[in-house]
Amino acid sequence: MDAEDVGGVHVKYLYHCPRQLWLYLRGVRPEHLSGAVQLGEAVHETSYARSSPIDLGAAKLDFIDGRHWVHEVKSSARPTPADQAQGRHYCYRLEKIGIDAKGAILHYPKTRRTHRYPYTPEAADQAQADIAEVIGVAASPISPARLARSACRGCSFTDYCWTE
């Protein structure tokens, strides 16, 4: 895996759980069995339906407005570091193809809230560090340690980590 192969899902999984990222990179894909993932897909499909997704190869963002703000629709009720990292990653990807992204706006339809995260030079540096870390997890021959079980609530990968 090289830097161009790293997408938003990879960065999101890195922040959520490095073990989840490692399993995902090896083809373990139980998401279709998860009610939480199905809910997220439904929220995505019914929110901001007039907007077109942007395909950047490994990265697929929900939409970008005329002022160059990346918009991402999230099914959770509140922002997480993984959401913020994913938005930052999309800004970085846009910058690499010559689009001056202003930042990410994360939409949370469940609570009718939005959060803005400007894209700064520090955010660009962090996006590069995130990509390097994803590549490091991908190269590891053994999976990262699992998180505490309480952190795994609702994760579609739970059976892969906690089945004895």
From TrEMBL:
InterPro entries hit by this protein: Dna2/Cas4_DUF83 (IPR022765), PDDEXK-like_dom_sf (IPR011604)
Domain DUF83 span(s) in chain numbering: 8-162
Protein name, entry field: Dna2/Cas4 domain-containing protein
Pfam families: Cas_Cas4
Superkingdom of source: Bacteria
Transmembrane segments: none
Gene3D superfamilies: 3.90.320.10
Originating organism: Actinomadura decatromicini
